[in-house]
Amino acid sequence: MSVADLFPSAPTAGRPLSVTIRRPDDWHVHLRDGAMLKAVLPYTAAQFARGIIMPNLVPPITSVAAAAAYRERILAVRPGDSDFRPLMTCYLTDRTTPDEIERGFRDEVWAAAKLYPAGATTNAHHGVTDIPGLAPVLARMEAIGMPVLIHGEATDPAVDIFDREAVFMEETLLPLLARHQGLKVVVEHVTTAETIDIVRAHAPRVGGTVTPHHLMINRTSLFQGGLRPHLYCLPVAKRERHRLALRKAVTSGDGCFFIGTDTAPHVASAKEAACGCAGIFVGATALQSYVQVFDEEGALDRFEAFASLNGARFYGVAPNEGQLTLIKRPSRCFASVAVDDEEIVVFRGGEDLPWSIGEITTR
Ligand SMILES: NC(=O)N[C@@H](CC(=O)O)C(=O)O
Ligand SMILES: [Zn+2]
Ligand SMILES: [Zn+2]
User: Fold this and answer.
1) I need a surface site. Which of 77, 84, 173, 228 has the fewest CB within 10 A?
2) What are the transmembrane regions (predicted)?
3) How many domains does the chain have?
């Protein structure tokens, strides 16, 4: 399937505004497995050259062998014309050993390890219950230069859901950064102004990913005219002042912020439920949304750094060859993607998006 087939857009008269960047990467992707993997992978593979693949499958990816097998399943359903490279991660548990971590990193199976506080988010029940107890693993990662990627939310059910990120940063992240002063850390899906400050204060060994949706919605959006289950994700969207701080941070040109879409597909029936699950499928509309934000903020000249350079620098890899063009040409986004006899609702699906994906070259 070609890019034009996946992301159709109407031709416009005259020469529309456009921006051409090195091919970008997505440093936080949930591709799932089986039929869901096959349904969503083409969108991420069309938008991004590489993706950091989240390990929160059921059961989670905790061994080198499981990660290598998962990578093969991804490559087996990758569209024929795609060179998308999945970068695998290890799901840390209370039983992860430093040796397994190092082996997977040296064998180039793992690019990073993922720390979910137990129960913090979707499929995180096998996560870490004793984060200080992870010290031997984190010390080894520090020694070999392997990044840890953190879902930063407190898990104490007594903590207000809108405060969980802030409490985690104060009670858990700052002490962890102090204990492991050389450890490379990505604070995933940053949602608050205070977390932005923490990332900046610890750069360059700390980076932060920001999702398209947290740049576009605030917590009121979840209740706009009624309950909006397709805008529910974790960390939950915060107040408007936080959204504005995120927009300012990503468009600032600071090297510590980079793309991590957190595209997290779930079938509609799992979200439109009495107890709907957390996660937004943003894989098909990520770049169109990010570039719109940069356009609205008058920062198109800084888009390439956020999309294509900062993350690669943090991970210590070269930026991609090839280029991708985004065009300010409206396109009606499809509403959903089919999987088996269900559908996955697309973030901003059914809307007219002001920006479209244009030409992509691979070298
Ligand atoms: N973001 C989400 O709300 N959900 C993610 C997990 C995560 O990244 O926290 C998922 O796997 O569905
Ligand atoms: Zn998360
Ligand atoms: Zn995620």
Assistant:
1) 228
2) none
3) 1
Q: How do the pLDDT tens digits run along the chain, 363 residues long?
A: 566 777 776 665 677 899 999 999 999 999 999 999 999 999 999 999 999 999 999 999 999 999 999 999 999 999 999 999 999 999 999 999 999 999 999 999 999 999 999 999 999 999 999 999 999 999 999 999 999 999 999 999 999 999 999 999 999 999 999 999 999 999 999 999 999 999 999 999 999 999 999 999 999 999 999 999 999 999 999 999 999 999 999 999 999 999 999 999 999 999 999 999 999 999 999 999 999 999 999 999 999 999 999 999 999 999 999 999 999 999 999 999 999 999 999 999 999 999 999 999 988
Length of the chain: 363
44 located within any domain: yes
- Does a structural domain hold residue 187? yes
Q: Determine, yes or no, domain membership for 10.
A: no
Per the structure, the complete domain to which residue 157 belongs is given by 23-321+340-353
Quote the CA–CA distance of 38 and 31 in Å, as a whole number.
9
| Cα–chain center distance at 116 | 14
From the CA of 32, how far away is ligand 1's center (Å)? Answer: 11
Q: How open is the CA angle 32-33-37, to the nearest 5 degrees?
A: 75
25 is known as an active-site residue: no
Structure-block tokens of residue 160: 């207000």
Q: Which one is catalytic: 25, 26, 254, 262?
A: 262
Classify burial at 330, counting beta carbons within 10 Å of its beta carbon; exposed 0-12, middle 13-18, buried 19 or more.
middle
Cα(55) to centroid of ligand 2, in Å? 11
Rounded to the nearest angstrom, the distance between the alpha carbon of 337 and the centre of ligand 2 is 22
Which CATH number do you get for residue 223? 3.20.20.140
Q: What is the ipTM metric for this complex?
A: 0.99
Name the amino acid, one letter, at 165: E
Q: How far is CA 211 from CA 81, 113, 216, 262, 287, in A?
A: 27, 19, 9, 6, 10
Index of the ligand 1 atom closest to the CA of residue 266:
12
